[in-house]
Amino acid sequence: MRTPTPDPVPLLSALRQALGDAAVRCPSADEPLLAHLQDWRQRYRGMALAVVSPASTEEVAAVVRLCAAHGTGIVPQGGNTSLVGGAVPDESGQQIVLSLQRLNRVLDIDPLNLSMTVQAGCVLAQVQDAARAEGLLFPLSLASEGSCTIGGVLATNAGGTQVLRYGMARELCLGLEVVTAQGEIWRELKALRKDNSGYDLRDLVIGSEGTLGIVTAACLKLYPQPASCLAGLLRCPDIDAATALLRLARQHLDAELTGLEAMAAYPVALTHQHLPQMAAVAHALMPAALDGSAATNAVTTATPPPPPAMLADAPWLVLLDTASPRPEAALRASLEALLAEALGQGLIDEALVSHNEAQYRAMWALREAIPMAEKLAGQMVKHDIGVPSSRIPAFLRATVPVLQQAFPGCQVVCFGHLGDGNLHFNVQGPPDMPTPAFLAAHEQAVNGIVYAQVQALSGTISAEHGIGRLKREALAEHQSPVATQWMRAIKAALDPAGTLNPRRLVP
Question: Which H helix or E strand runs over 403?
Answer without folding.
Answer: helix 392-406
